[in-house]
Amino acid sequence: MRAPLSWLREYVDLPAEVTGRDLAAKLISAGLEVETVEQQGADLTGPLVVGQVLAIEELTGFKKPIRYCQVDVGDANGTGEPQNIVCGARNFAVGDKVVVVLPGAVLPGGFKISARKTYGHLSEGMICSAAELGMGDDHSGIIVLPPGHEPGTDAIELLELVDEVLDIAVTTDRGYCLSLRGVARETATAYGLPLRDPALLDVPAPNGEGYPVTVSDRGACDHFVARTVSGVQPQVPTPLWMQRRLQKAGMRPVSLAVDVTNYVMLELGQPLHAYDRTRLHGAIGVRRAEAGEKLTTLDGTERVLAAEDLVITDERGPIGLAGVMGGAHTEIADGSGAETAAGDGGADDAGTSEIVIEAAHFDAVTVARTSRRHKLISEASRRFERGVDPQAAAAAAQRAVDLLVLLAGGTAGAGVTQVSVPLTPRTIKVAADHADRVAGVAYGRETVVRRLQEVGCDVYGSDELTVTVPSWRPDLTDPNDLAEEVIRLEGYENLPSTLPRPPAGRGLTRRQRLNRRVGRALAGAGYVEALNYPFIGTAVLDGLQVPADDARRRTVTLANPLSDEEPALRTTLLPGLLAALRRNDGRGSHDLALFETGLVFLPTGRESTPVRLPVTRRPSAEEIAGLDAALPEQPRHAAVVLAGAREQAGWWGGARPSGWRDAIEAARTVAREAGAELTVAAAQYAPWHPGRCAALYVRVEGGQVLAGHAGELHPRVIKALGLPERTSAAEVDLDLLQRAGTEAVTAPRISTFPVATQDVALVVDASVPAGAVEAALRDGAGELLESLRLFDVFTGEQLGEGRKSLAYALRFRAPDRTLTAEEATAAREAAVATAVERTGAVLRGA
Question: How many helices and strands in the chain, by DSSP H and E?
């Protein structure tokens, strides 16, 4: 909604020093969204005057028609002599009044005017178009003024070129601000000034002499007013002041009848429509359309109507889409016999001498659905969708009648037709201190009552208030709406900043705390979190080489997916992470380590069919339990993907490429945060390489349970998905790790006694996992073992084919004494003996 400041001053006596930016700040503080304040004419300086064309000489020999004009500008040029001006426009004639800018003036955009020779003649100024004065985008011709203005009159003041216009983004709950009346009400409230309400008019009572109207659907049209004006003079132009107000508000002047109806709509917020009475056949009706009926609207489009559309009719059938756009069959002809379509929600043209004015109130939902069904958005539909004051129809019709009588020489018909449903004012019971409790501020009853009265409410009561909501505020429906009005008018910026006080015993759940710890640990290890959409398709599962009978193929399909290529919910985190890795690698980032934690969706086949719950009541506990039973299992997983270098090259040495070991270590990092210990074993599981895939187990309730997999991806998967070579990945079940671990943090045991370090190198078959050897050493070393670290893996001819050497550093320490060499050696030998017994290891060098 564009609101000129000069127009607002007509309804509110703002101090002269108040600027558009000052007003914008006040309205923003009150909760309106003022997007811009347009400074019109700020860079315009005169002389800019009215001129009368005295003579026109047509110049020939040029590529386009050129005219050499003599223009009377009165005494504005200091001599009283006619001004000679070269002009290329063709839409004016001798005797017309035009707008002339004289040498020394500056037009919008910094365009300086001076006398110059062009087309063989000296041009002493310029005859202006609307676009050159910043009045619009029309370059088709110059401005031709009404004949009543004297040459030399200041055109800057005449055309109201200097003004400020507020552009307000009106939200759906503030439909009343789609009018100058609504914006002026907010302005008056913001400055504590009285409002001159333009809707307070003397409206004659309805009688039986008006144009006949029948409304068959009172639910969709609860108010319909019809007025007639006869004797309208077709050729009367729209006065300049009205044209300029319409232009500043963003509407194009068309003709007097169009401009009057649009002007009243902008002023009061009530859309109007005007009909040529001679083209109406019988009574005006309001009803639902019959399926298949056709209507040609004012934009020239023939539309096939649906049974839900609300239409305006006469005896021949539909003549308009109610609240959206009128029909072409009843548009008003101009004085030349031509027909001009009306603006949205306005009249058609001023070429008819007898006009029927319609001012009606239509159901917001009905208008919105019709507008969207026909893809037809108009100024009228925008207002009806957001809520129009149902009690403004009679005043708007009276205002239009008064303007047509005043400006077009018409005569108001004695008949007044009004079909309406009695409206019961909405009342709300609210505690006087409700706004105080919502805002945490002690406003007091007097402030609450005053603020509610300022928005138009009637308030009664003491401790409990009975609030009657005004007809133009359909958004006020409950006590919280009233509290919001008080808070916004008192100023959101005046609300104190206080920290919330959560009740004791509340906070993050154990699952949430683990998720945060895992994220911090992986980020600290150099991984970057990548959040992905939880949708997959069969193509990516094919690319991952997932077998046809794999449980990951059993997915939950969405009824209305965002993409037909990804219609299902994910059963693994890898598709999204691998797509992110491929995208970043394609954009030049080749050393990548990404991670994600999130839900996967695993249907079991035992889910029940959900029932549709009613919306008229809160669902019962049994109904909620039934909905929960219809959901698939949704465990939280953690996954990582790696490609490129894990450690960068530098003066310290070459780069180290990432590999399957890093993926396994990432899984161990996740497990450590859960307080669980992973057991690693060789496995074959898609999409991993069969020789470089590890199954990850945890002990839960006395048994080993598979928690996930890690390793290097299969070459066929890498090729199918376009991934970098040797890409590695890991994925684990976080919920399972949480059940296997303990959330309690065990403080490390610190001993003041020295450590005894023993190294041991064991030769085993290449097929024996290092984890199995490590577990045997731990079990054999006993309680004195503090830590165990694998520091070397060696293979060579001297060991024999199929053999490898694993070298471990064992640290022993006692909590109460210094260990002797014999005690450390005995513990080492016990560890080696257990490893020999379990894995067939041989002590290297023995």
Answer: 21, 42
